[in-house]
Automatic annotation (TrEMBL):
Keywords of the record: Coiled coil
Name this polypeptide is given: Transposase
Entry annotated with the keyword Oxidoreductase: no
Ranges in coiled-coil conformation: 36-63
Species the sequence originates in: Nocardia lasii
SUPFAM superfamilies in the record: Homeodomain-like
């Protein structure tokens, strides 16, 4: 880092800080764009609502399947008997 700092005419500690900041934002892109407490609370509420809706969809799928089987029970095959 010292060599890079000398080449660009910057303090080595400044370059080191740039590298650390870049590493932090590339491993955690959210850190590069912090959000307000209000937005964080809204995001949390929306994620909770999304989980609830996903559970509701699963329940409705199961209910639909159950009632479809109730309404249209499987047909039993008659014993194969020779035709007369």
């Amino acid at each position: 880092m010292k060599t890079v700092a000398e080449r660009i005419g910057a303090n080595p500690e400044t370059v080191r800080n740039w590298v650390r900041k870049t590493q932090a934002t590339t491993t955690n892109p959210v850190a590069a764009h912090p959000i307000s407490e209000e937005m964080a609370a809204e995001l949390k509420a929306l994620r909770r609502k999304n989980r609830e809706l996903e559970k509701t969809v699963e329940i409705l799928k199961a209910a639909t399947s159950f009632f479809a089987r109730e309404r249209d029970p499987p047909q039993t095959r008659e014993c194969d008997s020779p035709q007369k």
